[in-house]
Amino acid sequence: MNKAYENMRNFWLDVKNLENRKGIMELGADKISVAGVEMPVPDGNQTKYLLVATNSLGDCSLYFENNSKSGLGGMIGGHGDEKMQTVAAHMLAHASKLTAQMSADEKLPVPAAGCVRLFAVAKNKIFHIELPEAEARNTQNPFYPMFAYSQQLLGSFRAQAQEHPAHC
Questions:
Q1: What's the CA gap between 147 and 133, in Å, rounded?
Q2: Quick one: which of 2, 38, 51, 113 could link to 71 by a disulfide (CB 3.0–4.6 Å)?
Q3: Neighbours of 126 (CB within 10 A)
Q4: Whole-angstrom distance, CA of residue 15 vs CA of residue 80
Q5: DSSP 18
Q6: With the CA atoms of 92, 93, 97 and 102 taken in that order, what torsion angle do they form, in degrees rounded to the nearest 10?
Q7: What is the C-alpha to C-alpha distance for residues 53 and 59, in angstroms, rounded to an integer?
């Protein structure tokens, strides 16, 4: 994982970055403020990573490793986009209900090849679970709605990129 991507990843995984923001909410028994999904993306002989995350303010971001000079691509969304904010709110709400079925750590492990890592972030810990991507896409899996919302966010980011290519 390159440094630029790691820096943005760490920003989203530290809710202390939200402490002074007006309107931040903590959802569920574990007081979740951030949720997201990280997945590995094969690129030739190496693996790159993609992260989509949201917080309880309705902010959303997509970050991915790429072959640019900085090694990082990304998009910011949420504010002003009601559809994106609604999807993000649903993903966060679902994540806050699933923490009892996740592991809790201080750091988020990197997902293995062919897997996705779903996560929910509270002040002092990160809840997470790694699932094979096929399992995450199984509609019978309790984590399916959270994963499906992350995929809807990715779709919203794609639509945003097509509508405003100069801003991406």
A1: 9
A2: 2
A3: 20
A4: 22
A5: G
A6: -10
A7: 8
Q: What share of the chain is helix, strand, coil (3-state, %, to 5)?
A: 35, 30, 35
Give the tokens for residue 146. 């959270």
CA-closest candidate to residue 47, choices 113, 145, 123? 113
**Cβ atoms 99, 28 nearer than 8 A:** yes
| DSSP for residue 23 | T
Q: Is residue 100 helix, strand or coil?
A: helix
Average pLDDT on 82-99 reads 90
- In this prediction, what percent of the chain has a pLDDT beyond 90? 54
Q: Report the DSSP beta bridge partners of residue 122.
A: none
Q: Residue 168 has what pLDDT? A: 46
Give the CA-trace dihedral at 26, 123, 88, 141, to 10 degrees. Answer: -100
75 touches 153 (CB < 8 A): no
Question: At CA 108, angle to CA 157 and CA 125, rounded to 5?
Answer: 105
pTM: 0.90
